[in-house]
Design a protein that fits this description.
With about 650 residues, the chain is mainly β. Among the domains are: about 45-150, no CATH class; about 445-645, Neuraminidase (6 Propeller), CATH 2.120.10. Helix content is about 0%, strand content about 40%. Strands 37, 38, 39, 40 and 54 form a five-stranded antiparallel sheet that branches. Strands 45, 46, 47, 48 and 49 form a five-stranded antiparallel sheet that branches. The longest helix is centred in the C-terminal third of the chain and has 6 residues, at about 530-535. It is elongated.
Length: about 650
């Protein structure tokens, strides 16, 4: 086998960790004691646009005028506080604002909250677009040193505290009388405008409308800041809707060695800009971006969530992965240690081929989804919001759970829905623990299912492999009624054997070397309750299943959020994104390298890809970053051919 050739002019991005960090997922039923935002006089129902935790308070902002806790209704004006422990309304926090709240961030003292939005007055005093309030009282901070600078423009859409400074982003042209286009930096203690930082101008528009910076996110070390919004240039250079800045000790500047054309297309022309939200991972390794835009196919990033690694540079940066809804908006995004949460009004997730309908790979995820950080594939978590409304506009991950702010009142399918007025809280306590997705490594037993090339009997054999030393073949006795001759490729992950069969389905069952568990059909594309309640939102199995049914799949293995496989009639090694926790397979088929004709069994161990060559020999080749390379080494000359190969 020659050194592999790339079959597509396409990045094969690398996600560093080979195993998913074990973490908790929230429960699917929202906690029942949170306050409910009520419909307002004048006909509008209320909406949550921003949430932040400050000490023992969850601060909630948006457009609303009353909230109910139990049987008591409280007048509030666009801002309220919830006790982070009890999840109940804090009635002592009742500031008066005359306009919508769009942004919240903790103050430097840990006792105050920075508030941004479209308001002009706070507690009767002129505070255009920005204020700092005491979270205990709702009044301006007692020390009196913070002075809100005059902001000329429509709104402050985001606030980020980084590098000892307060950065504000929005739709404005001047701050404190100085020219500031979309971005400014302020003193944490006084609110005074910085004359050295936050001076990168964002100008022009993507597709009409008004220039604005919608979101900013800084890395935890304070060296980089990402910005999204309706702009064409940043710092005088073209940056369509997405830019990266460097934050220094002397000044800030556009990062001239970071650019993407990912958001250069128009998507649907009715949108002046289609980037909606952005979040930074807790470890600072990546940002995720949520968009609207209408269905645009896989060559654009419309109606999608994307991951962008923060250590990537260059003038043609690509996302690590893209998850498409198939035509519905994502408005919000938040990241925990182990999941990317996306909110909006989608019907589906993992639907790249969909154009307002379910296509190959789509799964029902009404209004909310939790995505695998490695590949963007949905986890099984699926509380849903129905009706979906305009969307879930704000998500907040805290140490103990996930908060969801929206313009709707119900979670879960209609037949079992729970009323939660605009605010939902999903605790981690009681939720599932994500598997680590561990595959066995050598030295160990390597199993061959249905050995041979002609008869391929219903049996399982093994050989012990340690480096270049291979033991004799042993016929295994495995209880549980497994028909090994049915297997069409296999992989063992976390003690669960995954395998395809000629009937066109994927299966799984536990395997411990002496027995197998009950066989389970893997069909995450159907959800009994959601399918019954909303039949037009049903998912669709990927075309990988039809390839299995046609006898096209030869061998498969799992590595780092990907299922690799070979196919009859092709010399390529392919992969699809795959998350074992949910069993969901990605819809996009990526060819990694060529030279793999009639290769059947495969597995990865210790940075090597072991595979059964067409002559039956077991070979190994270097496998790093998801790509095989170099010349192969023969490990064993025995005949390893069969219908499945895995390390157990």
């Amino acid at each position: 086998m020659a050194a592999p050739q790339f079959a597509e002019d396409r990045q094969v991005p690398v996600v560093a960790s080979a195993a998913l960090a074990a973490g908790k997922m929230p429960v699917e039923t929202p906690y029942g004691g949170t306050p409910n935002i009520e419909p307002n006089q004048g006909g509008w129902a209320g909406v949550v646009y921003a949430m932040a935790q400050v000490g023992d308070k969850i601060i909630v902002g948006g457009k609303f005028q009353s909230v109910k806790q139990g049987e008591t209704t409280y007048p509030v004006t666009h801002l309220l506080a919830i006790n982070a422990t009890t999840k109940r309304l804090d009635p002592s926090f009742r500031p008066q604002l005359d306009g919508t709240v769009e942004a919240l961030a903790p103050g430097a003292d840990g006792k105050s909250v920075l508030v941004g939005g479209k308001f002009n007055k706070v507690n009767g005093a002129a505070r255009p677009k920005l204020a700092r309030l005491d979270v205990a009282t709702g009044k301006e901070t007692a020390n009196g040193t913070w002075k809100t600078p005059g902001i000329q423009g429509g709104a402050v859409f985001d606030i980020e505290v980084a590098k000892g400074r307060v950065y504000i982003a929005g739709q404005f042209t001047s701050v404190a009388g100085a020219n500031r286009k979309g971005l400014a930096a302020l003193s944490q203690t006084t609110g005074g405008l910085s004359t050295k930082f936050g001076m990168v101008p964002f100008t022009g528009v993507h597709n009409g409308g008004t220039s604005r910076v919608r979101r900013i996110e800084a890395t935890p070390d304070g060296t980089k800041m990402y910005a999204i919004g309706n702009f064409r240039t940043a710092g005088g250079q073209e940056r369509r809707q997405f830019a990266r800045l460097t934050l220094g000790d002397a000044t800030d500047a556009l990062d001239t060695n970071w650019k993407t054309d990912g958001f250069a297309s128009s998507c649907a022309t009715v949108f002046d800009s289609y980037v909606r939200d952005m979040a930074m991972s807790p470890d600072g390794k990546y940002v995720a971006v949520a968009t609207t835009g209408g269905p645009g196919g896989t060559t654009q990033l419309c109606d999608s969530a994307t991951r962008w690694n923060t250590d990537d540079s260059g003038l043609n940066v690509k996302p690590v992965w893209t998850n498409y809804t198939g035509g519905d908006t994502l408005d919000s995004i938040a990241i925990s240690d182990s999941a990317v949460f996306a909110g909006g009004h989608p019907r589906w997730s993992n639907n790249p081929l969909g154009r307002d309908r379910s296509r190959y790979g789509a799964v029902t995820r009404p209004g909310l989804a939790a995505l695998d950080p490695r590949n963007g594939i949905p986890f099984s978590w699926n509380p849903g919001r129905d009706p979906r409304g305009d969307g879930a506009w704000s998500l907040l991950v805290t140490d103990d759970g996930l908060w969801v702010g929206s313009d709707t009142n119900y979670f879960l399918p209609p037949s079992s829905q729970k009323f939660r007025g605009k605010i939902g809280y999903f605790p981690f306590a009681g939720g599932s623990t994500l598997p680590e997705d561990v595959t066995k490594q050598l030295p160990g037993k390597v199993y061959v299912a249905a050995p041979g090339t002609v008869l391929q009997p219903n049996k399982l054999v093994s050989r012990t492999v340690s480096g270049t030393t291979v033991g004799p073949e042993v016929t295994e006795t495995v209880a549980g009624g497994m028909n090994w001759s049915d297997v069409r490729g296999s992989m063992l992950i976390d003690g669960v054997l995954w395998y395809a069969k000629a009937d066109g389905a994927l299966y799984k069952r536990t395997f411990n070397g002496t027995a197998v568990g009950a066989e389970q059909v893997v069909n995450p594309y159907a959800d009994a309750q959601w399918d019954a309640d909303e039949p037009s939102w049903k998912g669709t199995a990927p075309d990988f299943y039809s390839a299995v049914a046609g006898g096209l799949t030869l061998g498969m293995f799992y590595d780092n959020g990907r299922m690799y496989y070979t196919r009859t009639g092709s010399d390529s090694l392919f992969y699809r994104s795959f998350t074992p926790e949910s069993g969901i397979i990605g819809s996009e088929n990526v060819a990694v390298s060529s030279g793999w004709s009639n290769v059947r069994g495969m597995f990865v161990s210790g940075g090597k890809l072991y595979y059964v060559a067409p002559d039956g020999k077991l070979n190994a080749v270097t496998f790093t970053g998801g790509v095989p390379s170099g010349s192969p080494t023969v490990i064993s000359t025995e005949d390893w051919r069969g219908r499945g190969l895995f390390v157990g």
